Backbone:
């Protein structure tokens, strides 16, 4: 099994004709994701060719869902229009929206997320690499070649750091059920606990890797949730031990505010709640091996 | 982006908030003249992007224009938390009956803008939150409806009993929320909001941070950026669309992706070294970005070794390799470069580097440990 996406996912790509949207649509189709529609205002009626597929393009999400029964969407729209695209998707009847776009103003997101939540739609991101369920499909930009099918769930606020960890697992012969990037912004939809809960309910996931970073308190709350609810082992990593306070470290959400959100604090809370913490990215692999008894 | 107090007060004034008059001086002469115009009794305040100005001696009361001049002489050029003071704000000295705190910020947990108000103003609000949490009222604002009248009134009555002050404070809440949302702030703070002996509210200090992501849509606010208040390397990095933070160590880092960049810095520390910077060259990086990154890193004289850590996903390793080779042609780099590349187009990248006389690693630990050892011996 896998979480959030599987072989029944019917995906619409918002911004399918843009530079990122078109490149990653090719990659997703190549991997076997069922991309049923593209949306680009003004290009309705055209098609997008990917491999042997001819994907119809619509002006609006409403039309795309009506014509193709899409049940999920992915947003590659530029930042100024992305919060609008997220709300359009949430209003169209899909139940899962993945927002890849980086650079959406935070106040735009507060409004968009309230709108999405009101409609009971799951949002992943923004500013995230999406997710991949090896062997079943991927939504977003995670490179498929570094993943493999197997028993480990991976959830992370980062992109390339996740690739690093996943790559090392795969090299060691340990595959994944689903790898999810929840995004580096201060306001995101799906959070650590949502993913942990989904992994806990997935019989195929036998251990979870949780990769956090400085800023906010999501990791701390997730750690308490793990202690109270998780039966399978969780291995943690926190990036940003050398980050100075008050500075944004690339991700808009990666900032130590006052004395809160430091790596030190997060590592301590992880350990207090029984999560084995890797000191180096390479140690994630070894701790997972140990947890799985390999 | 942090803006200066005087700029924050401009935004507050536009929103109708009761801000006392004030002007900026860059020389003691100007300071004296402004003090004269404001009636002689003024406060001279250092304009730098850091807290603790008062403790550092950057805020002084002057009872005459001559004294304002003397204070300006002392404060201009002063270094506060590593930042040099280039400007002072001259503003009338106010008599204070009481001080409150009013701030709006983005609450990540509530996923909305949230007010924090406290009758204990003029001090660090984080300290109040620790020692006397009951003295702070938090009010989240539903982004769908904005600040509602009953919420503003509730906060006003939390701060004041006098109906006249409650009325003024209610208005202040709405005005502050307008300033916060119209300028896409991540923080807008009045600390302190004072009551004068005449029974009026005044915002005598202001702190505002603007959401970087909103700056393209707010050219007037974006123009507030003071490049004199940041290291030149950070200005150059921003212009090249690189995410960069200068640090104190000697291992220059060049990485793709923010999380991996942080993890690389941490690994430098793990092996006993000190990172000279955080630098994320971003996703779909072209060779020009790599050249700009190397220019920025090599301009720092404390850098003893340069470390590349690239995990190719969207970023193509061959692009980065071409950038490194191109940079060594364009600029004279004496500093040794240690490179780790893996992922998309790794084979092509390794061939490009080999032709140019570079060797590359595929393991992150190996390259970091080697680079740190070199820096320690250099």
Residues:
């Amino acid at each position: 099994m896998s979480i959030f996406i599987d072989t029944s996912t019917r995906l619409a790509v918002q911004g399918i004709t843009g530079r990122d949207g078109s490149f990653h649509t090719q990659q997703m189709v190549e991997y076997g994701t069922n991309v049923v529609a593209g949306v680009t205002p003004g290009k309705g009626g055209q098609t997008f060719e990917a491999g042997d597929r001819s994907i119809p393009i619509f002006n609006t999400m409403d039309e795309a869902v009506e014509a193709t029964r899409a049940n999920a969407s992915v947003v590659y729209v530029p930042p100024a229009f992305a919060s609008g695209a997220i709300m359009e998707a949430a209003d169209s009847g899909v139940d899962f929206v993945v927002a890849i776009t980086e650079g959406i103003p935070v106040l735009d997101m507060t409004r968009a997320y309230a709108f999405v939540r009101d409609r009971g739609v799951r949002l992943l991101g923004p500013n995230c690499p999406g997710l991949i369920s090896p062997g079943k499909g991927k939504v977003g930009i995670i490179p498929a070649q570094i993943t493999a099918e197997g028993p480990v769930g991976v959830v992370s606020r980062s992109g390339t750091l996740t690739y690093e960890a996943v790559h090392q697992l795969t090299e060691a012969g340990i595959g994944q059920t689903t790898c999810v990037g929840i995004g580096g912004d201060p306001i995101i939809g799906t959070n650590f606990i949502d993913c942990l809960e989904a992994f806990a309910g997935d019989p195929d996931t036998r251990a979870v890797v949780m990769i956090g970073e400085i800023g906010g308190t999501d990791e701390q709350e997730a750690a308490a949730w793990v202690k109270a609810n998780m039966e399978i082992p969780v291995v943690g990593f926190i990036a940003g031990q050398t980050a100075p306070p008050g500075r944004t470290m690339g991700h808009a959400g990666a900032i130590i505010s006052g004395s809160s959100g430091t790596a030190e604090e997060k590592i301590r809370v992880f350990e207090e709640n029984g999560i084995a913490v890797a000191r180096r990215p390479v140690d994630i692999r070894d701790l997972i091996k140990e947890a799985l008894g390999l | 982006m942090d803006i200066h107090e005087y700029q924050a007060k401009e935004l507050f004034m536009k929103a109708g908030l009761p801000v006392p008059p004030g002007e900026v001086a860059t020389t003691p002469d100007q300071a004296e003249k402004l003090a004269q115009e404001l009636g002689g009794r003024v406060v001279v305040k250092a304009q730098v992007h850091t807290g603790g100005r008062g403790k550092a001696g950057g805020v002084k009361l002057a009872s005459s224009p001559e004294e304002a001049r003397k204070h300006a002489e002392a404060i201009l050029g002063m270094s506060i938390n590593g930042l040099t003071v280039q400007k002072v704000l001259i503003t009338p000295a106010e008599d204070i009956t009481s001080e409150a705190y009013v701030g709006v910020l983005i609450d990540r947990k509530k996923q909305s803008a949230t007010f924090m108000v406290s009758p204990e103003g003029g001090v660090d609000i984080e300290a109040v939150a620790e020692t006397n949490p009951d003295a702070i009222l938090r009010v989240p604002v539903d982004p769908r409806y904005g600040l509602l009248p009953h919420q503003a009134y509730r906060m006003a009555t939390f701060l004041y009993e006098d109906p006249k002050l409650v009325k003024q404070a209610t208005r202040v809440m709405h005005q502050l929320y307008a300033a916060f949302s119209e300028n896409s702030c991540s923080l807008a703070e009045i600390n302190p909001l004072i009551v004068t002996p005449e029974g009026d509210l005044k915002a005598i200090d202001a702190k505002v941070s603007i959401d970087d992501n909103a700056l393209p849509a707010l050219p007037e606010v974006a123009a507030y950026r003071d490049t004199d208040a940041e290291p030149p390397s950070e200005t150059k990095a921003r212009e090249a669309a690189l995410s960069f933070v200068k640090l104190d160590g000697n291992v220059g880092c060049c990485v793709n992706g923010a999380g991996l960049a942080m993890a690389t810095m941490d690994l430098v520390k793990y092996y006993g070294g000190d990172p000279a910077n955080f630098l994320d060259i971003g996703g779909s990086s072209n060779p020009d970005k790599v050249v700009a990154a190397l220019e920025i890193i090599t301009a720092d004289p404390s850098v003893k070794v340069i470390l590349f850590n690239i995990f190719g996903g969207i970023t193509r390793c061959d692009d980065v390799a071409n950038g490194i080779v191109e940079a060594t042609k364009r600029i004279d780099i004496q500093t040794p470069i240690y490179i780790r590349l893996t992922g998309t187009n790794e084979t092509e990248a390794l061939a490009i580097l080999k032709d140019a006389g570079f060797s590359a690693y595929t393991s992150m630990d190996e390259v970091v440990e080697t680079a740190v050892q070199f820096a320690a011996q250099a």
Observations:
- The CA atoms of residues 155 and 285 of chain A lie 14 Å apart.
